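Postdoc handover notes: sequence design on the structure in folder B. Input C-alpha cells:
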C-alpha cells in the first residue's frame, strides 16, 4: 500500500518557522494502530489523517503517542494541503472531528479556522506546578490544558521548565502566557503527557488563550505570538462561544509512505 504524505509548516510565513505537521490523505480509514504507528514514525507533534465524506472531510489527529480531540496547527496544515495541492474549488472547508464541526476559510494568504471556545475554570495551583514551571503563577485555569498566567513576557521567553515534573499534571498540557510587548499576548506550550515536550505553535491552546485575553484586555481581535524557538503568529478573534484563529502555511515536503 502506498499513501501520499505532506509535511507543512503551519502558522508560518516562510519555511523553518511555525509548527510542522504531517498530513495524510486517505481514501478510507486505516486501523487506529496503523495511524498511530505512522504518527510515531513521523515523530512530529501531530500527524493529521483525513477522509472525504458527505459534509466535506472527516479529520483525525495523532501525536507520536496518542490520538487527540483537537489540533489547530495540523488543521491549518490539512486545509493548506486541500486548498493548494487538491485545488479545492470552494472557499470554505468543513471538517467533522472529535470536537464537532470545524470550518476553515481561505482569505487571501491566510487560512481562518473557527473552533469552539474553551470553558475556563479557575483552578488551585498543584503543589508541584510552580516548581515545574519555574516561575510564580499569577492565575491558573483548567480545561483540556492548564492556562498558567505569569507576570511578564520575558519570563515566558526565559522558561526552562522541568519537563519530568510537568508530566505529573493530569491535563494534556500546560500553556504559560503573559501580556505581550509588541503583540497582545505571548505563550509557550508544554505537553509531555502527549509525547511533546514543547510544541512550537499550538492552535488548540489559543481556544483557551483567546477567551482569557479577550476578557482581560477588553478586545475581541488579538494578535498572539507563541515564542518557542521556531515561533509563530496567530491572529485571534473572540466570537461568543467560538474563536476564530488565522495563520499562514508553507509546504516543506511531499512524499509517499510504503506500508
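Designed sequence:
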Amino acid at each position: 500500500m502506498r499513501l501520499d504524505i505532506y509535511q507543512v509548516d503551519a502558522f508560518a510565513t516562510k519555511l523553518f518557522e511555525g509548527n510542522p505537521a504531517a498530513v495524510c490523505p486517505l481514501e478510507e480509514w486505516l486501523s487506529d494502530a496503523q495511524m498511530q504507528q505512522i504518527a510515531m514514525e513521523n515523530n512530529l507533534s501531530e500527524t493529521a489523517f483525513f477522509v472525504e465524506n458527505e459534509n466535506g472531510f472527516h479529520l483525525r489527529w495523532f501525536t507520536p503517542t496518542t490520538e487527540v480531540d483537537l489540533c489547530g496547527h495540523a488543521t491549518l496544515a490539512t486545509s493548506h494541503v486541500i486548498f493548494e495541492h487538491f485545488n479545492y474549488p470552494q472557499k470554505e472547508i468543513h471538517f467533522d472531528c472529535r470536537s464537532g464541526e470545524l470550518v476553515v476559510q481561505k482569505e487571501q494568504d491566510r487560512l481562518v479556522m473557527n473552533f469552539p471556545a474553551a470553558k475556563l475554570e479557575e483552578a488551585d495551583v498543584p503543589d508541584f506546578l510552580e516548581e515545574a514551571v519555574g516561575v510564580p503563577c499569577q492565575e491558573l485555569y483548567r480545561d483540556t490544558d492548564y492556562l498558567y498566567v505569569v507576570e511578564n513576557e520575558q519570563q515566558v521567553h526565559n522558561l526552562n521548565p522541568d519537563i519530568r515534573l510537568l508530566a505529573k499534571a493530569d491535563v494534556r498540557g500546560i500553556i504559560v502566557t503573559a501580556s505581550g510587548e509588541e503583540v497582545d499576548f505571548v505563550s509557550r506550550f508544554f505537553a509531555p503527557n502527549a509525547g511533546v515536550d514543547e510544541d512550537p505553535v499550538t492552535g488548540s491552546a489559543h481556544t483557551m488563550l483567546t477567551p482569557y485575553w479577550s476578557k482581560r484586555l477588553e478586545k475581541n481581535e488579538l494578535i498572539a505570538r507563541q515564542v518557542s524557538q521556531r515561533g509563530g503568529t496567530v491572529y485571534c478573534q473572540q466570537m461568543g462561544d467560538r474563536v476564530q484563529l488565522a495563520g499562514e502555511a508553507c509546504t516543506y515536503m511531499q512524499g509517499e509512505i510504503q506500508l
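Context for whoever picks this up: The radius of gyration is 18 Å. Don't rerun without checking with the PI first.
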